[in-house]
Prior knowledge:
This protein is α+β, with helices and mostly antiparallel strands. It has ten helices and 19 strands. Strands 4-3-2-1-5-6 form a six-stranded mixed sheet, with helices on both faces. It has a three-stranded antiparallel sheet with strand order 7-10-11, with helices on one face. Helix 5 (106-115) links the parallel strand 5 (96-100) and strand 6 (121-125). Helix 7 crosses helix 8 and helix 9 runs antiparallel to helix 10. The longest helix has 22 residues, at 138-159.
Amino acid sequence: MPIQTIEEIRRALAASLLTELKLDALLVTNLHNVRYLTGFTGSNGAVLLSQGDAILFTDPRYTVQSQQQVNCRVRIAKGPLPAAVLQEIDRAGIKHAGFETDHVTVTQFESLKKGLPARAQLEPVSGLIERLRMVKDAAEVEHIRTSVIANSRALEMALKHFRVGMKETELAAEIDYRNRKLGAEAPSFDTIVAAGERSALPHAHPGPAKIGPGILLIDMGAFRDGYASDMTRMVHVGSATPKYKRAYRAVLEAQLAAVDAVKPGATTNTVDRAARSTLKRHGLEREFVHSTGHGLGLEIHEPPRIGRKDKTKLEAGMAITIEPGIYIEGWGGIRIEDTVLVTANGCEILTPTPKTLREI
């Protein structure tokens, strides 16, 4: 028996779930899910997955690329992909076809429904492939680990070029440049560089403000081999004030408490609670305005969500962020974030950058 590729194993796992849902096939249109199932990295593609079969639909631009990347059947559509998919549904006699409700617009759904064979039905499916993607295989873990390590190196390289008076946009560009130099395909999100009072904006966009003495928040990540990294580190330009030192210690304590709560079987809300209860002891719980973290992989934000109400049970192989923070209008913000891997016995912090209070 030939050795199965990882994509073949993933498709078999996904197809096995179709029986439970009483589906003959699943139309996969999310490009991240398409890549997960086939290895295809083009910008236009869909997969019709059924028991023992899978077809990638794409257009003529990707004829050669699909041959190089994909080990299932490929259909090159001369027109819109939905028309080619509907032809295959008709030809194969598929009666119950699932579609990804989270990734299909109303217009796309109506178009599919209009062209559907009379005997066939479209059935809504939510998060099926995403649930498989939550637990990373060994190759995915290594991709994430490599991405995280390179991202940390990029920060150190960029900070060597930092100078007081540099604009936020300039430092963000330096970070992106260094990640690219180290092999990244792209930032995994818009790099955040926020100085002074602007650090109180959790998702601040770098602006023309000059970085002077005071708080500096840097949130950065990159895609490498398709997999994301994510890290937030604080830098204090000049000597840190007593207030900053106290606040930094509180956030670090909360971050370490949340990391300590990460283990197989723990629910995500208990990890979130560990961070919040720590900040509450410091009188800072109201300044923590977002969730404690999120999954990452082929996307920068993936399930599970590490929040108050989410009760997903952690499993070995999940890659998540732990990133509590506080934000005080008129003063600034502090966030500390690592990428963490759930292991059989607890967790491993993948981010190598130290979390000691840093002054430059």
